[in-house]
Amino acid sequence: MSAKTIFKKIIDGDIKANVVYEDDLCLAFHDVSPQAPIHVLLIPKKEVVNVADLTAQDEALAGHLLLTVNKVAEKLGISNGYRVVANCGLDGGQSVDHLHLHILAGRPLTWPPG
Ligand code: 5GP
């Protein structure tokens, strides 16, 4: 069995996170190294590696995650827009192998990313 990712440890309560939202399918918590005044990670409780690892069986879960983004944004009082990022794989800059959506807000964000 492969080792638990840091996010699986957060789901299982092995390590603490500053949780902002939770339901049966997903969990949102503040990033430990924020890249904007608001930087929250939204993750499925199911162990999925990244967007490329999603299958047709995950259709409802993927939809639920996207719909939950705005719920989290409203809960955080974000009123001036935000960015949603899903880094995928090596070139995508993914460092934790558990699907996560970064929700970034609180300052104007530049484009393109580095
Ligand atoms: P990635 O680079 O995979 O897209 O994003 C992983 C994110 O997880 C990074 O922004 C990193 O700061 C965050 N992160 C890594 N370890 C922890 C942790 O133990 N707790 C929290 N809250 N965030 C973490």
Can you offer a commentary on this structure?
This protein has one domain: 2-Layer Sandwich (HIT family, subunit A), CATH 3.30.428.10. It is globular, with a radius of gyration of 14 Å. The chain has helices at 6-11, 59-75, 89-92, and strands at residues 19-22, 26-30, 38-44, 83-85, 101-105. Strands 1-2-3-5-4 form a 5-stranded antiparallel beta sheet, covered by helices on one side. Helix content is 24%, strand content 21%. It has 3 helices and 5 strands. The longest helix has 17 residues, at 59-75. Bound molecules: guanosine-5'-monophosphate. Guanosine-5'-monophosphate binds next to strand 2.
Share in β-strands: 15-25%
H-E string: HEEEHEHE
Which small compounds were modeled alongside the protein?
A: guanosine-5'-monophosphate
Average pLDDT over all residues = 97
Helix count, DSSP H or I runs of 4 or more residues: 3
Low-confidence stretches: none
Structural class: alpha+beta
Number of DSSP E strands = 5
CATH class (first level) name: Alpha Beta
Rg over C-alpha atoms, rounded to the nearest angstrom: 14 Å
Summarize the structure.
By secondary structure, the protein is α+β, with helices and mostly antiparallel strands. The protein is built from 3 helices and 5 strands; from the N terminus they run αβββαβαβ.
Keywords:
114 residues; alpha+beta; binds guanosine-5'-monophosphate; HIT family, subunit A; 5 strands; globular
Layout of helices and strands:
Elements: H1 6-11, E1 19-22, E2 26-30, E3 38-44, H2 59-75, E4 83-85, H3 89-92, E5 101-105
The chain binds guanosine-5'-monophosphate (5GP).
